[in-house]
Amino acid sequence: MKKIEAILAAAVLFGAVIVAQAQPQSGSVSLFNGKNLTGWKNNGAEKWIVDQGAILCESAANKYGYLTTEKTYRDFNLRLKFKGEAAGNSGVFFHSRITGINPDHGPDIEGMQVEVDPSVGKHTGGLYESGGRGWVKMPTPEGEQALKPGEWNDLEVSVQGNHIVTQLNGVKIVDFIDDAPKFTDGVIGLQIHTGGGVRMRWKDIFIQEK
Question: Is domain 31-209 classified as CATH 2.60.120.560?
């Protein structure tokens, strides 16, 4: 009996640890309720569904696809988890907006993108400005090795005015002062890159406005 009680106590403690890890920082709000896509908008013909408590994005039409927040944000701290399940490229956009639909490649977007790729050394956490300058800040050499392929990865994006910091699994990837910001507010968006093959999961998405 004591053995069973010990096992049950350990299980309760383990569950409490898992719950604690998923809790937001003080003042943060959840952008994803784990059940449906309330608060988000699907732009394009790609697949965005809720599966096993996570947002699953998957290539369906071989074009760009974006899941964007209904609300716009300026200064914030964003925290989320992602896990790549295929070789396709993705990303997290902020200060962004959908500018139109191209019949050949799907929605057009402008704004700043935090690169998210399922493979090590593919610049996850680096900053790319769509509709503007292209790459503005690449990861540090240490940052290029911070990704955990096939596992859940913790991504944090901090934006305060023209100061942008990204961290991946506790490793600082970029610390960037933008001397010529083109975009200062907009929606947050998750991306499916054109070319097919994307299968990415997202969960525990919290934002704290500054």
Answer: yes
